[in-house]
Amino acid sequence: MRARLIVFPIKGKKWCFSRSIDPFASQSPSGVTPTTLRGLWKKISSESKPINANAELLVDFISDKMNKAWMGLEIAPQGSMKNKIHGFGLKLLARVKPSEIFLKSISKEVTSVQVTYPPSLDSKLVRRRLRHIAMSGTILHKKYLIGSVTLLPLTSAFMVLPLPNIPFFWVLFRTYSHWRALQGSEKLLELISNHSNPKKPDSTDDTEESNKPKQVSQPPTCILLPSDELSKLLREANGEGLDEETILEICKTFHLNKNDVLKYRNLV
């Protein structure tokens, strides 16, 4: 599966890195991740898989449960305890850095990336910035993942209280989030290492090359494509960065999440 990444300056030296949302992308088939603990144990015990594959299955199971619980809070009546918890959760989620959201979007199913950027940016600089965000992500999220796992037993002690254990579920979510961001960092670093760099054929080597056995060239996993359309949308930018109207137009044109892009502009 190919992911389309959009890169552009948003305010001063700040760049936005976001993945285009494919409206026609198919969701993962239902039934792959067990819905019950019994089903999870049966799938793990009946199939001989490596430890990392079973860990992936466990993480997906926990993620599925967390998503369903969050959806339950979202539809709770106004003024209820669940509704207040949902509002508090939104405030916490607003503090998550946009780079983490970007790295989490690079899932294990992605086999190549197409990077769209304005022609005013140097392609080597774009690739270097992508490599930097991927390498720093592997270091940062590995450290935070260890810290979050360490906090899980401590926050689980609040289960004895009659109130919802918000600290435990928040730390559990952060553990999952850092796990996914770490995987995305490693995947992105792997993909951008094999970028497209077509070479022109040399007529002087035609005879020599014809005598060599032909090898099937592997397609590049990272393709850098400048976009005139994106460049036109950025022309209205000033020293203070892109205004919200321009950002909304870019998000609409390239199918980006508006809230994630705005986080880059508001990032201190």
From TrEMBL:
Keyword set, alphabetical order: Membrane, Transmembrane, Transmembrane helix
GO CC terms of this entry: mitochondrial inner membrane
Annotated spans, Disordered: 194-220
Keyword Glycosyltransferase set for record: no
Pfam families on file: Mit_KHE1
A single BP term in Gene Ontology: potassium ion transport
Matching InterPro entries: Mit_KHE1
Bilayer-spanning residue ranges: 144-173
Name of the molecule in the record: K+-H+ exchange-like protein
Native source organism of the sequence: Arabis alpina (Alpine rock-cress)
Lineage of origin: Eukaryota, Viridiplantae, Streptophyta, Embryophyta, Tracheophyta
